[in-house]
Amino acid sequence: MSPDTVGLALLLLGVLLLISKLVRVKWKLTQKLYLPSSIIGGGIALLFGPDIFGRLMGLLADRGIAVGFAERAAEGGLFGVDIMSVWSALPGLLISVVFASLFLGKRLPKMRDAVDLAGPNLAFGITVASGQYVIGILLALLILVPFLNVPVVSGALIEIGFLGGHGTAAGLGNTFEQVGWGEGQDLALGMATVGLLSGIIIGIILINWGARRGKTSELDASNRGTDREQAGLIEHEKRTHGSTMTVHPSSMDPLTLHFGLVALAIIIGQLLLSGLQWMERMLWADTIEIMAFVPLFPLAMIGGIIVQIFIDRLDKNHIVDERSVERIQGMSLDVLIIAAMATLSLQAIADNFVAFLVLSVGGILWCLFTFLVLAPRIMPNYWFERGIGEFGQSLGVTATGMVLMRVVDPEARTPAYPAFGYKQLIFEPFFGGGLVTAAAIPLMVSPLVGPWGFLGIMAATMAAALFFGLVVLRRRRTKAESGAEPAPGAREQDPVA
After folding, report:
1. How far apart are CA 36 and CA 385, in angstroms?
2. CA 482 to chain centre
3. Which residues are CB-contacts of 393 (< 8 A; sequence separation ≥ 6)?
4. Three-class SS state of 425
5. Is 23 exposed, middle or buried (CB count within 10 Å of its CB: 0-12, 13-18, 19+)?
6. What is the C-alpha separation between 236 and 270, in angstroms, rounded?
C-alpha cells in the first residue's frame, strides 16, 4: 500500500465529513434525529461502497454497460479496493486514541464524592450493561445456537454494539477474527447503528412522553433550541473557544503537546498489554488464554488514567487543557465512525438477519424496561433527567446520552450531568469498551469459563448492582435524610416531577 493511497484515503474521509455536515445543516430529518455528521457520512460512504454501488455496477457489467469502470467499481465500489483497505484499518488504530483521551485533562475525583453523587447512576449503568450480556447470552444459548447455527459469542453483541458503539465494534475486529467469526464485527457495527438510531428516536419519544406526563422538571416546550442549534451550529453570541492556549506556540503548538500526552497514554497501554500477555504465556496460557485476544484500547484507557494521575500531581501550571484533548478525541472518533461504517459488510448482516433482529429487539426491550421500571426506583431524585442519559448511553454510547440530557435539561440545572460524568470514571474502564467488553469474547470461548460461566458472572454482577442500587444506596439516603447531611446533588424537586 503506497503512502499516496493512504493520504488519498484520509483526504476522501475529510471531504465526506464536510459533505455530511452540509447534509446535517440542510436536511431537517437529520436535525430532528440529532444524527452526528460522522454517521451521515458513514451512510453516504456505505451507499457508494462495494455492497450497494458495487453490486449495482456488477449488474451493469454483466449486461455489458460501461464494462471497464463497472468491473472496477463492482469490486471496491466508487472508492476502490485500496481506499477501502486503508479505511478498514483505521478504526482499530483510532479507537486507542479515543479511549486514551477519556480521562486526560479531567481531575480524578475522590472516591467518596464519586460514589455519593454517581452511586445510583453507577448501579443503574452496571445493571443495564451486565443485563445486556445476560439477555444476549440467553438468546444465543436458547435460540441462536441451536436453531440458527450462530456462534455463541453472538451473545456479546448487544453490549458491544449498543454500549460500546461503532468504535468498540470496529476495535474488536481482530478479536472476532481470532475466534473464527469475522462476520461478528459487521453484525456488531450493524447493532451499533441500530442502537444509535433507536437511542435517539426512542429517547426523543420518551422525552416528549415525560414532558406531557409531568415527569420532567426542567423541560419546557420553548427550550428545544433554535433552528441553527438544531442544525448543529452554535449561535455567534454563544460561541466559546474550542481549546485554551496553555503553552506559547513559539515553543510548541498546544495541540502538539496534547497529542504527545495521548501518544504517551497509548504507549503505556501497549506496554501494559505486552506485559500482561507475557505473564499469561509464562503462567497460565496452557489452561486459559484471555490477554491474547484483548485489544489495545482498554489498556490505552488505563494508560490515560496513569498519565492523568501524574498530571494531577505535577502539573502546577495547568498546561493540560481538557478541551484540547476533547478536540483530538472528537476528530479521531468522527474519522473512526465514518471509516467503520464505510467498510461495513451488509452481506454479513443479510446472512445473519434473523439473529441480528432477535438480538436487536431483545436489547432494545431490555433498555426500555430498565428505564421505565428500574430508573425511578434507583435514582433518588430527577430520575427522568438522570435516567434518560443512561438510557441513551445504553443504546447508543455516551454521546447519545449527552444529547438526550441536553434536550431534557438544556441549562444543566439538575444533578444529571455531574452524576453521569462521575459515573463514567468508574464505569468506562469496565463496560462500554472497557476491560469486561474486551474480555467477554475470550472468556466465552475459553474452556475454563465458557458461555455458561460468563453468563453466571454477569448474572451475579447484575444482581449485585441491583442490590446496591435498590437496597444499599436507599438505606444510605434514608440515613442521610434522617440526619443533618442532605443527599448529594439533591435540591428540592418540582412536585410535578
Report:
1. 22
2. 39
3. 125, 163, 199, 400, 401, 432
4. helix
5. middle
6. 42
Does the pLDDT value for residue 86 go beyond 90?
A: no
Separation between Cα atoms, residue 472 and residue 311, nearest integer Å: 34
Cell numbers 428505564 correspond to 371
Question: At which residue does the C-alpha cell 454483466 appear?
Answer: 62
Percent of the chain having pLDDT more than 70?
A: 84
Question: What does the pLDDT average to over 89-116?
Answer: 76
- C-alpha neighbours within 13 Å on the C-beta side of residue 497: 21
pTM over 0.90: no
DSSP letter at 156 equals G
319-356 per-position pLDDT tens digit: 888 888 888 888 887 888 788 778 777 777 788 899 99
Measured CA to CA, the distance from residue 426 to residue 350 in angstroms comes to 37
Q: What angle do CA 298, 301, 302 make, to 5 degrees?
A: 95
Rounded Cα distance between 297 and 91, Å, is 11
Backbone angles phi, psi at 75, to 5 degrees: -85, -40
| Domain residue ranges in the chain | 3-79, 99-221+250-336+347-481
- Collapsed DSSP state (helix, strand, coil) of residue 210: helix
What does 258-299 look like in DSSP terms, one character per residue? HHHHHHHHHHHHHHHHHHHHHHHHHHTTTT---TTT--SHHH
Cβ 124 vs Cβ 390: under 8 Å: yes
Residue 22 has pLDDT above 80, yes or no: yes
Residue 404 corresponds to which cell in the numbers above? 438526550
Question: Phi then psi for 65, rounded to 5 degrees?
Answer: -100, 125
Coil, helix or strand at residue 90: helix
Residue 481's identity, in one-letter code, is E
Cα distance between residue 298 and residue 435, in whole Å = 6
Q: What is the CA 112 to chain-centroid distance, rounded? A: 26
Work out the pLDDT band at 454, boundaries 50, 70, 90. Answer: very high
Q: Which of 405, 369, 245 is nearest to 319 (CA)?
A: 245
Residue-level pLDDT at 490 = 47
Query: How far is Cα 187 from Cα 351, in angstroms, rounded to an integer?
Result: 10
Percentage of residues of the chain with pLDDT beyond 90: 26
248-299 tens-digit pLDDT? 687 888 888 888 999 999 999 999 989 988 888 888 766 666 676 667 877 8
Q: What is the pLDDT of residue 55?
A: 83
Cα R_g (the chain), whole angstroms = 23
Q: Whose CA is closest to 434, among 172, 111, 112, 155?
A: 172
C-alpha cell at 138: 440467553
